[in-house]
Amino acid sequence: MTIPYVSVHGGHSGGYCGHAKDQLTDIVARYAEAGFEWVCLTEHMPSPSEAMMAPEEAENGFTVDSWRKNFSDYMAEARRLKSKYAGRMDILVGFETDAYSGYQDAVASLIEEYEPDMIVGSVHHVHDLYIDFDDDRYREATLLSGSIEQLYCDYFDKQLELIERFEPAVVGHFDLIRLLDEDYHVRWEVPEIMERALRNLDRIRELGLILDLNMRAMKKGASEPYISAPFMEYAIANNIAMVPGDDAHGVNDVGGGFEEGLAVLTARGGSTQWRKPEIGRHRLGL
Fold first, then answer.
1. Residue 37 — left, alpha, or beta (φ > 0 → left; ψ -120 to 50 → alpha)?
2. I need a labelling partner for 213 at 20 to 30 A (CA). Which of 40, 100, 246, 274 fits?
3. Mind giving me the DSSP string for 14-42?
4. Residues 6+ apart with CB under 8 A from 259
5. For 135-144, what is the mean pLDDT?
6. pTM, rounded to two decimals
7. Helix H segments across 85-228?
8. Average pLDDT score over the chain
9. Is 281 a residue whose pLDDT tops 60?
10. Which burial class, exposed, middle or buried, applies to 113 when counting CB atoms under 10 A from its CB (0-12, 13-18, 19+)?
11. Once rounded to an integer, what is the mean pLDDT over residues 22-51?
């Protein structure tokens, strides 16, 4: 049986994201050429303050106003592409959250204004510091938490807050907190961390949400995608949906890591009967 190519999380592009490259039209064309059955376009939400921007955004001249304009342009272009490829490839137009101070009002406002098909609920910040950008910010966030174990706990608590508030159709890169921690396997042995992570997975199951089986980690040379072994095994045992996301940030990223991540999933007995996000599911949290 041929396993269909899909992505619940992708389509970041240089036209609308300071740390991506290439144009959205070219990225979508690549999805179609690669034979994707459906794809969710999930550009990052605009930052409500310059303090929350990644350095690439500032270096590329992004301001709060220009990023908001870019986001509006993105939504219009994504919907144009959805119409263009109708009948050939199904496109869901959405966006990816952040979870910094003030994010709840910002996400609710974007949902109300743009009525996306779906959202990816992602946490990239703890204590308003990026935990997936560089070692310095990761260390600073760790100091503010008091320990690396508490940093993990704070991350999963923030993730639960996001899940409860918005019930995002897709929960993005579930264990991203591990990215800059070479010893992340040790953290899964800490009861306080595991209790929080499994609590979040239980809530994801109860709400019928989808886990982003994020393949970008494989493209970066990791031995496993997000989510990692103990959580993937728990999700499989508890019938929690996992669906691939390539998290593409350019044409060459489309489908990246798919085969490698798929091998990990199938070796662990995971299902490849992909479930498409339900349009409007995120609105239940409003």
1. alpha
2. 100
3. TTT-TT--S-HHHHHHHHHHTT-SEEEEE
4. none
5. 96
6. 0.95
7. 103-114, 135-145, 148-166, 184-187, 191-207, 216-219
8. 92
9. no
10. exposed
11. 94
